[in-house]
């Protein structure tokens, strides 16, 4: 029997329980295969992947060197207990530490991003002897006990069962929670607000501030230039650890290995997943600073996972990071972001009335869509759904969140592919501006 889109969709709807969904309302897109920045279905319809799936395929789909490394590792050793020493795990950890700034020495591996945050939080609590974790309302940190409660977005609310979490407003000048009119004002007021939250929650009770340096799912929110430095200073003043969640922004997406490198600031723990191996095999982890590593030389770390440092994941990390270095993938993300993509999105923002703002760095951008530029009224959910379907019909797989299109192609995206993506966006935004702009 030949495989068809209908067959795969029917199998899915009958047996698969999906994430974050009302199961009865789903009509999933069928994907048969992929290569580089392109995916296709069983009818041969092709899509330019401007979502990188869930913003994870930084190296693109089906990179031959990564696939070869996974196959080779599968022939050698497919699984090993975390307590054993294993070559692939050591090589993967070494490469990650080499890409981190000075002052980081070890890597704890997890299965993905949420459990990486979970373990970073646990390390911070154990290291400081304090309980509370502060994180931003505009954030996403994952879907496990503490990670979902650290998350600020509304998916937190039905899942609030972990203890010791408090939230603060992070800067977002376009929709300022601080009535700020420029970036400097937004920065100062956001830092003053964070200081007040620390004072009110009790500095002596706070183990860590957990932050995405550039919040991703919340809208690719570029922080004001000195915000992260200000957060670092507050953390230092009160003896609080700083955890940067680089799960979405890390490993090349912003045109640097880590997003925080743009802001001249260093955290105490770095949480990663997604781009570290483009998700070819599930993996995540925590890069641990020298001081915290030394602490756990003398103290027990009460945490672990059966698949911590799984050989297939580790081999894929080694091959991914080597290929990214050899092929200049991070440099490509920076070049495309500053050039054709960044400039192209600026042009779309000028030309189309429903674009309220474009922002981002590297291949990590968002277009914020509004029905009225003056009032900044977010475009309605039904208009956004129409836009998503129009983009798909034109052959682009978009990442749509609330009233935004996140423009997040793989870091390997070529100039020609970027131009093609921009042309599709141009068409659809033109059509939709005529229909939906006030
Ligand atoms: N942290 C950030 C910043 C994320 O964007 C995500 C997922 O999108 C996570 C954590 C959770 O990662 P995972 O879904 O791999 O558990």
From TrEMBL:
<dbReference type="InterPro" id="IPR015424">
    <property type="entry name" value="PyrdxlP-dep_Trfase"/>
</dbReference>
<dbReference type="GO" id="GO:0030170">
    <property type="term" value="F:pyridoxal phosphate binding"/>
</dbReference>
<keyword id="KW-0032">Aminotransferase</keyword>
<dbReference type="Pfam" id="PF00202">
    <property type="entry name" value="Aminotran_3"/>
</dbReference>
<protein>
    <submittedName>
        <fullName>Aspartate aminotransferase family protein</fullName>
    </submittedName>
</protein>
<keyword id="KW-0808">Transferase</keyword>
<dbReference type="InterPro" id="IPR015421">
    <property type="entry name" value="PyrdxlP-dep_Trfase_major"/>
</dbReference>
<dbReference type="InterPro" id="IPR015422">
    <property type="entry name" value="PyrdxlP-dep_Trfase_small"/>
</dbReference>
<dbReference type="GO" id="GO:0008483">
    <property type="term" value="F:transaminase activity"/>
</dbReference>
<keyword id="KW-0663">Pyridoxal phosphate</keyword>
<dbReference type="InterPro" id="IPR049704">
    <property type="entry name" value="Aminotrans_3_PPA_site"/>
</dbReference>
<comment type="similarity">
    <text>Belongs to the class-III pyridoxal-phosphate-dependent aminotransferase family.</text>
</comment>
<dbReference type="InterPro" id="IPR005814">
    <property type="entry name" value="Aminotrans_3"/>
</dbReference>
<dbReference type="GO" id="GO:0005829">
    <property type="term" value="C:cytosol"/>
</dbReference>
